[in-house]
Write a structure and sequence with these properties.
Largest sheet: 4 strands, mixed
Shape: globular
Oligomer: single chain
Helix content: 25-40%
Strand content: 15-25%
Length: about 425
């Protein structure tokens, strides 16, 4: 499904009920499955998004093919979960893109703890054949620079090991805020976890059962797209339930978008966003701890003509798509010429290309690409978002919320509205 987006006719003034955090939900489902030996009971969390639906469905299985589709978090977490589940005998697989996303460091680490995991295809990548068994602890060194999800996957399984686990970091952890989220949730369920700059120690223990829906926050990663809309529309956006402080690392969104003129006021009921003309003349930031914010920030900077330089974007190359490559290509369609330095830097110095035809944005089967570029309709009326249904991976209601905010969201196959034809004459 391709969608054509037009901006609201009036200044935006809207209230948005954000989806719950799938990052928290996926961790709690793994924790609760370990705590209760349960394979079901996650219906409310499954409804959050395609990713949580994939996780909930996988946790009902003990044998045979378990296909998580494009859900990267589910692939990593379930690899450790099934490896440490005695009696499990599964083949864990996903989409063709998933088969190109590396998982070797996690498999190597689990094998060192006694796991029985074999590659069904290319070494280092899914699909995986996993036969669950009791694992042991001890000291384990792992490359922490590739994905925090590798570390989180092992840590959540570690309370069931027969001896304490000391996970020693080799290199600074990527997306460390997500690792801290995992540790916080484990501690909240009664597990003794000690985290230092050198590594993490987990003592054997049992998770305290609790309702899986307990205290799941609205998703700060989803909020970023409404910060983007507030910044470029100079309108008002209310986000009920959004909180600060938060265990979500992407809550740094508020301070990053403050540089782009978005004022955040936290009240008991949530957050209220409003726009200020006071924007920085240039934005530089290390995004290694919040890589999911790169797309909405980069698009916002370009639309507001604010040069930027973001470091720490290495992990974006192995997301649902190569987000660095995709961002460069699709912003170029909107005339913005970005640059990269190695694998870890992306920026824009104000360079523009000639104006082309009406923009049609490819999403590369990536939900965040679709949501980051949709607000560009405020500057490029009639922008087309290809394969727009990909938003269901994390934010199924996104297009409905956009309509409620006043945007016109049409099937791109429908005839061009009369007002646009008149403008083109």
């Amino acid at each position: 499904m391709d969608l054509r987006i037009y901006p609201p006719e009036e200044i935006i003034d809207t209230e948005v009920s954000l989806p719950l955090s799938k990052s928290i939900a996926n961790r709690l489902m793994i924790i609760d499955a370990i705590a209760c030996g349960g394979q079901d009971g996650f219906a409310s969390l499954a409804a959050i998004s395609d990713d949580t639906r994939a996780m909930a469905a996988a946790l009902r299985e003990r044998s045979g093919l378990v296909d998580v589709g494009p859900a990267g978090t589910a692939m990593r977490f379930l690899t450790a979960y099934f490896a440490a589940l005695p009696g499990a005998d599964v083949t864990l697989d996903g989409t063709e893109r998933m088969r190109r996303r590396p998982i070797g460091p996690l498999v190597d680490a689990l094998r060192a703890l006694g796991a029985d995991i074999e590659y069904k295809g290319e070494d280092g990548f899914p699909p995986l054949s996993i036969k669950g068994r009791a694992l042991h602890g001890g000291e384990l060194e792992i490359d922490a620079t590739i994905s925090s999800q590798f570390l989180s996957a092992i840590l959540m399984a570690a309370p069931g090991f027969d001896t304490p686990l000391f996970l020693r970091f080799r290199g600074a952890p990527a997306s460390e805020s997500y690792l801290k989220m995992t540790v916080a949730l484990m501690r909240s369920r009664g597990i003794d976890v000690d985290m230092t700059p050198q590594g993490i120690t987990v003592a054997p223990g049992k998770y305290t059962p609790a309702p899986a829906t307990h205290d799941i926050e609205p998703d700060w990663s989803a909020a970023a797209f409404w910060y983007e809309i507030a910044a470029i529309s100079a309108g008002w956006v209310r986000l009920p339930g959004l909180r600060s402080p938060s265990i979500q690392g992407d809550s740094v969104c508020a301070s990053l978008f403050d540089r782009l003129g978005v004022v955040t006021e936290f009240e008991d009921g949530g957050a209220q966003l409003s726009a200020s003309p006071e924007t920085w003349s240039r934005v530089e930031a290390d995004m290694s701890d919040c890589p999911d914010l790169v797309l909405p920030l980069a698009v916002t900077c370009c639309l507001l003509s604010v040069p930027f330089r973001f470091t720490g974007v290495e992990s974006l190359h192995i997301k649902e798509c190569d987000r660095v490559e995709a961002l460069v290509a699709e912003l170029r369609r909107l005339t913005y010429v970005l640059y990269t330095e190695g694998s870890g830097v992306i920026g824009w110095e104000g360079r523009r290309a000639p104006v082309g035809e009406t923009a049609e944005i490819a999403t590369y089967a990536d939900h965040r690409m679709a949501m980051a570029f949709a607000p560009a309709a405020l500057f490029y009326p009639g922008i087309v978002i290809r394969d727009a249904e990909v938003v269901s991976k994390s934010y199924p209601r996104f297009w409905d919320d956009l309509r409620a905010a006043g945007f016109m969201v049409l099937d791109a196959a429908e005839p061009v509205p009369v007002f646009e034809e008149e403008n083109q004459q």
